[in-house]
Prior knowledge:
Radius of gyration: 24 Å
Strand content: 15-25%
Helix content: 40-55%
Distance between the termini: 76 Å
Number of helices: 16
Number of strands: 15
CATH class of the largest domain: Mainly Beta
Structural class: alpha+beta
Largest sheet: 6 strands, antiparallel
Amino acid sequence: MKKQMKKIKIKIGDLFKKLKITEIDELVEYKGIFIKTPSGKLTEIKGFIKKSPKDIYKYNLSNNISVKCSDEHLFQENGVTKKAKECKFIDTINGKLKIISEEFIKKDYVYDISISNPHLYVTPNGIIHHNTSITNALIKDLAADVLWINGSQDRGIDTFRIRVRDFAISKGFDESKIVVIDEADGLTADGAQKLLRGLIEEVSENASFIFTANYAEKLIEPLRNRLIEFNFDEIFAKNKKEIAKQMYLRAAWILNNEGVKFDTKILQRIIVELYPSFRKIVLFLQKNVKNGELVVNENDINILGKFEKIMNLVKEKNFVEMKKMANDFSNISSIYSFVFKNIDRFFQDKSQPAVILLTAKYQDMNYFARDKTITAAAYLVELMSNTQIIFKD
């Protein structure tokens, strides 16, 4: 006879107390505890983490309920994962709720869980939360003692000189020790990063390090040389078919949840053209929903075709039309990758070094630009006017 699971509602802080979890910034594994996902199914919680004190806020929502959490806590806003402090709305299983107001409560410990796919879970109030689990999955497989550090917040040298070093050289219950430095691109280059070079070698026999970063180039070269890099852009490229399928299913869920009518073939085209950026997909959908229906002009989703056309305008030195077209792009920042990937098609061999240097220069400028359309237009003008750059016939 199949045993019936007992379902209870409990605040996560109370759950941690019942489980007697006192370790700080360490993943504590438990079995037999499940939590609901947005699909209504239950998924097993792999482990629990009690994190160092953070700023706790009370967020008051449009349905007269409130949620207390760190301003770094991850929610979903229109299907996109965002920190609480970045959200204007929060997704729930019954639709989205507007954040009416927020108020600082106190600085206190925060709690998190580790789950597998779909990386999303639902609390009793219906709010959808996000769980960062790629690193957690690695740690679970390695069965190690873990110290979690947030590179954007805990960036002081003493954090690494004392706290990390003490953890790495101490004896633990497991044979392996892992230091996870999340958002490592937020570490100061002339302080924490330089210190970590020597620290990694000093404790290499006792501990391993995992760094996560959105901008790996912000890590100094001597530090990167001590690490093995995994580029998720390459993973997206090699597994495009399966990941794109999951993106389509997620986007379709969002549209259905919002009561939006859509053409499945049009949605497939949008996924293909904007892959792998799910954030861009959601923003594109938001922009093109009118009166409860997804209305998209064929030209708007034929992005690669538009890049092709704009490059032909540059080749023809048609500044007026190029400027108009550049202003109509929803993702003009992708032009740099497009040019590099298609450099052999557009430019003569002797011109390609100049094109690469120019592309690298403007792509870097694009990262800091307030108006990315102006930066991209300046790039296209320089491609058009640079005497060293010659297009193929």
